[in-house]
Amino acid sequence: MEHPPEIQAVIAKYPTLKKAFDTGVESDDGREGALLEFILAHPSRIQFKTAPQTLLDAVDEFSFKKDFLISVGPHKAGVLSDLLEKHKPTSIIELGSYLGYSAILFAHTMKTNTQNAGGEVKDLKIWSLEMNVEFAGIARQLIDLAGFDDIIEVVIGPAEDSLRQLVKDGTITNVDMVFLDHVEELYVQDFKVCQELGLLKKGTMVVADNVLRPGAPDYRALVRGLKGVKSEGIIGLIIPGGAEDELEVSNVLEDLKSGKDDTSTT
Ligand SMILES: C[S@@+](CC[C@H](N)C(=O)[O-])C[C@H]1O[C@@H](n2cnc3c(N)ncnc32)[C@H](O)[C@@H]1O
After folding, report:
1. Cα–Cα distance for residue pair 96/179, rounded to 1 Å
2. What contacts 251, CB < 8 A, 6 or more positions away?
3. What is the pLDDT of residues 35-48, one digit of tens each?
4. Alpha-carbon span 172 to 251, nearest angstrom
5. Which of 83, 108, 164, 206 is deepest in the core (most CB within 10 A)?
6. What's residue 266's pLDDT?
7. What pLDDT is attached to residue 236?
8. Rounded Cα–Cα distance for residues 260 and 197 (Å)
C-alpha cells in the first residue's frame, strides 16, 4: 500500500506501525498471545516481581520491535505516574484493561507512594474492567508476574455491566480515580453511569485517554461544561511513533449528583 511521504517516514522509523497504517488493525490478530510468549521467555523475567518496571519495559520493547500494542506506552505512563503521585489515589476503576499495562503501572506507582508515606499497602485496590476474555486472561497473567494480583482485580464483561454489579453488590462504594481507556464512543455514557452510581464524589479524579487520537470531543465538551468539575487536557505521546495525543484530567470539586438524567452544566 502506498502511503503519503510523512507516513512512509514514520513507518521507516517504526516498522511495527506498518500493519496499523496498511490495514487499520491494531489488536486482536494474534499479537496479544505473541506478547505473552515474549514476556514469559524474556531475559528480565526473574526481576518482574522485584522490579515491575522491567515487565512494562519488556511490553514496550515488544511494541517497538515485534508488533504495535494499544497500551498507554512509556510516555503516557510518565504523565499518569505524575498524576498519581500528585493525587495519591488508593482506589481506582479502570475501564479497558487490555493486557494489564496501565493497571500494573498504577499498582506499582500507588504501592511505591504508599510505602514511601508509611501507609498500608493492603488498603490499595484497582478494579480493571475488560470485556475481551482472552485479553483479560493475559492481563491476569502479567499482573501475577508483576506481583500485583492482591491489588488488581480484572473483572470480565462490558464496563457498564461490571460497574453496576460492583456497586450493587457493595464491592465498590467510592473510588479516588476513574480511568477511561476502553472505547471513546462510550466515554460519555460510562461517565454518566459512574455519576448515576454516585462514584463521582468531591476529590475523585477522572482521567480519559485518547481524547485527541482517535478523539473524544463529546466527552471533552461534557466534562468541561459540568458544574463542579475542573477539567484540562494534558499532552501524552503515542509510542512508538510519537503522535501527539491528550489525556483529559477532570477533578471533581463537589459531589456530582447521582440523578440518572442529571447533566447540569455551568
Ligand atoms: C486501549 S485498550 C486499553 C489499554 C490499557 N488501559 C493499557 O493502557 O494497558 C482498550 C481495551 O478496552 C476493551 N474494551 C472495549 N470496550 C469495552 C467495554 N465496553 N467494556 C470493557 N472493556 C472494553 C478492549 O477490549 C481493549 O482491551
Report:
1. 8
2. 204, 205, 229, 230, 231
3. 999 999 999 999 99
4. 20
5. 206
6. 46
7. 96
8. 8
pLDDT at residue 256 in the model: 94
Give distance in angstroms: CA of 50 to centre of ligand 1. 27
pLDDT of residue 260: 52
In words, the CATH class of domain 71-252 is alpha beta
Dist. CA 226–CA 190, nearest whole Å:
15
User: Which pLDDT does position 107 carry in this prediction?
Assistant: 98
The letter for the amino acid at 17 is L
Q: Which amino acid is at 18?
A: K
Sign of CA dihedral 82, 87, 90, 95: negative
Residue ranges of the chain whose pLDDT lies below 50: 261-262, 266
- pLDDT of 160 reads 98
Q: Which residue from 97, 154, 213, 247 has its CB within 8 A of the most atoms of ligand 1, so it is best to mutate? A: 97
Which residues have CB under 6 Å of ligand 1? 70-72, 95-96, 98, 101-102, 129-132, 135, 158-159, 181-183, 186
pLDDT recorded at residue 257: 81
Q: How far apart are CA 125 and CA 44, in angstroms?
A: 26
| Global ipTM | 0.99
CB 127 within 8 A of CB 173: no
CA distance 200 to 253: 10
**Cis peptide upstream of residue 89 (ω within 30 degrees of 0):** no
Q: What residue has cell string 463521582?
A: 200
